[in-house]
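Write out the 3D structure for:
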Amino acid sequence: MPDDPSQVVYVWWDAIGNYVTSLGYGTGDSAYGRWWETTSTASTWSAREWCASTPCTGRPCCCRPDSRYPPTSWSAGTTVDPAALAAPYGTDAVRWWLLRDVPPVRDADFTPDRLTTRADADFAGGLGNVVHRIVTMVHRFRGGVVPTSVSVDSGGLALMDVCREAPGLVDVALADFDFRRAIHAVWEIVQEANRCIDTTRPWELAREERRGNGEAAKQLDTILVTLVAACRVLADELCPFIPDAAARISGQLTPVEELLPAAQRLFPRLHEDVRRVHPRPCG
């Protein structure tokens, strides 16, 4: 919290009065002591209390949130109905923008174009692309069957480390109510999976295997198993945030009679819908 009260912005001074007087502030009402001074579930933010020099002894500092969401700021202006956005773009696209682009303690500018640009880049170009690449290679090099016999290969160690670390990083971020940091931890799996593919070059290992190189065959098996496992971790970690998208990924990675479903594009691109549904940006 800054030392200079003038640094606190977007504080609704009239709101603080409403919050405390409704509880009987200044009248000796026990509700004020119960719900304002000692409760651990705040109905407003410590920034307001601090600015008004009003005690809030039972709650943690807003800089270290515990049982409540940290302060953010809202400003008047054009509003957008999330339900109206979900109809043309899908709930996951709306969820994703809110999680990925809205900071926990500052304003965020919204337009439908930003929502669709983010969804196209991260869903179609990111999640969908990496899963499609991996499933395509499993079909091309192993007939759709995920290998079971693997060996230790340094090419996938970094990806394995990221997958092991991601759940803990997500938990820590969520404990701080920092959804963007949680999503960043999950997104590291996508980035590292792409790096793993580009570094290990499974198509070259497959070429060496066809030439009779048994070691290349073992390396290819290991890389494919590691990549598929990473995508499954990705689906698991994304499930609380974007459940429909996570289900699509899980379905693509669930064998049917030992074979992965044929690789398909999991996420359509939404950008063209912006011009049809929202000819002018709003926000």
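Residues 1-13, 40-77, 273-283 have pLDDT under 50 and may be disordered.
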